[in-house]
Design a protein that fits this description.
Blueprint lengths: L1 H22 L5 H25 L22 H10 L7 H33 L9 H22 L4 H24 L14 H23 L22 H4 L17 H29 L6 H23 L4 H27 L16
Keywords: Cell membrane, Disulfide bond, Heme biosynthesis, Iron, Membrane, Metal-binding, Oxidoreductase, Transmembrane, Transmembrane helix
Organism: Caballeronia humi
Membrane topology: Multi-pass membrane protein
Length: about 375
Amino acid sequence: MFVLQLGLIGLCVALLPLSYVWVKADDNKFRKLVWLTTFLTLDLIMFGGFTRLTDSGLGCPDWPGCYGTSSPFIAHAAITAAHQAMPSGPVSMVKAWIEMLHRYFAMAIGVLIIAQVVIAWTARWKRRPLHVSPWWPTGILLLICVQGAFGAWTVTMKLQPVIVTLHLLLGLALLGALGWLAARQTPIPVHEPAAARWLPAAVFGLALLVVQIALGGWVSTNYAVLACTDFPLCNGQWVPPMNFEHGFHLWRALGMTGDGEVISQDALVAIHWTHRTFAVVVVLYMLWLALKLRRFESLRTPANGVLLLIVIQFLTGLSNIVLQWPLPIAVAHNGGAAILILLLVMLNFRLSSSRPGRALLPARDVVSA
């Protein structure tokens, strides 16, 4: 019964953006829906970072509900008892609400993607041009189902770092897939075939960024942000004592080594130092790539966005160390990484579409205003 209640809550949350798309005066409601879903997915990723950074991931230690109910209101007695038994533990009423709001939001995103699937297949059956295969939103729906499974394992496996990191990466993959679909629905302002030769460089840049975000997720999920408390040195040294074997042993419990012992400070330093060092490579490459790509009119806006976000990421990352990991800056750092993924996806799409014979037609509406 409570699963049905959860579904209804997710549907009710999704009705607001769906209503906005329906009443908005736009010639292409499918495009509007895709862009809105992309924006809300970015918000969901940032809220997921907020959930993790406030230690609310186990605010409701079961899944998909909260102590077998659909709301912390109903589970009030169980939450209060757990908090009284362990006041410094992971369960409190505030943390339970943060966790459940994250789940409600995720379910609403699922409803919006289901709506995309229905529209796309309806357009195929009625032979209305949508300029995108219905298998694309269907694949995105499958991806969010996998993402939901990892969300469940995040809770049931007690925030195991590799599961939480994969949950983050799948969320970014979902954002990238939605961004690609949104770009597919938006005509490119100028077709510049000369830009296509930069596609391999942009693909490589996206790969570098994904690796760096994975390293950042590993830092966050292992709570290694403050393993180095100074900059540019790490604990007063360029190369401090580190334990890479324990730091990068993937299958282990939070705060433990693969052998079941408490993880050492040297292992946490290895995690932090690797992320920090690889960031230098990524920043330099991204700056070079963005400066090259901004010479093309069709790429100038996303390339400028990359330049801006690289600076912001550097400043927020440095502030996390110097200011001892303040919550707003930590959330902003997570959000900046997600926006960078979206910008790199847009750049790769436009470069791919710049190749001869790949000019895109404006997408036409499938749902009348």
